[in-house]
Amino acid sequence: KQNSSLGPATNKNELRFLTFGSSVTWGAHIPDGSPKDAFPYILSKQVTNLALRAHGPNLASLCTQSMVGDTHVYDVIVLEYFMRAEEGLVLLAQRLRQRFPNATIIFLELWYPALFYKKVEESFIFVQDWAIDNGVGGDGSLWDDRLYQKVMDTSRDDWALAPAQEAQNAMNKAIEAVGGILYQLPMPR
């Protein structure tokens, strides 16, 4: 059975995507855009975006059947929950694999500015706090051209990505459990 709202692929090359994730996948913080400008809608014309702002995978793992329904068919499922992977990602992935045994499941590992910190002597300071201390992004926002320029004026060696070993372990466990694929968004050079 197949839901006519999604329908069969219009041609052999049009994959049917299902996306789950947090604010990024939902489409938050798109300058001068709408959530419909988020990356899932670039992937395919046939996409169902079930991302929820500020949520980890727990809710989706508990409500999988009611969220995806019984009649839809998907070729590719994208899960964007890296920083909250330990909050139910394995269960969500297993439920999706059971419901869609032939789908390719992609685990998307994103980075974003809030994960960076500046090395300061024997310690560190997260970029949002550093911005406030340096008089840019006073509201803690990372969407400030002055902040971008201030960071670019420092040495790349002064910055590092916050370690996320628990999230990485949970992501790896989910990938192994369902035969998923990891895609890591490349960082700028």
Question: Descriptors for this entry?
Answer:
alpha/beta, five-stranded parallel sheet, 20% strand
Task: Give your account of this protein's structure.
By secondary structure, this protein is of the alpha/beta class. It is built from 8 helices and 8 strands, in the order βααβααβαβββααβαβ. Strands 2-1-3-4-8 form a 5-stranded parallel β-sheet. Helix 5 links the parallel strand 3 and strand 4. The longest helix has 14 residues, at 165-178.
Q: Measured on Cα atoms, how large is the radius of gyration?
A: 19 Å
Structural class by helix and strand composition: alpha/beta
Low-confidence stretches: 1-9
Helix content: 25-40%
**Global morphology:** elongated
What can be said about the biggest beta sheet? 5 strands, parallel
Concise structural overview:
With 189 residues, the protein is of the alpha/beta class. It has helices at 23-26, 40-43, 57-62, 64-68, 89-99, 127-133, 145-152, 165-178; strands at residues 16-21, 46-49, 76-80, 104-109, 116-120, 123-126, 159-161, 181-184.
SSE layout:
Elements: E1 16-21, H1 23-26, H2 40-43, E2 46-49, H3 57-62, H4 64-68, E3 76-80, H5 89-99, E4 104-109, E5 116-120, E6 123-126, H6 127-133, H7 145-152, E7 159-161, H8 165-178, E8 181-184
Parallel strand pairs: 1-2, 1-3, 3-4, 4-8
Antiparallel strand pairs: 5-6, 5-7
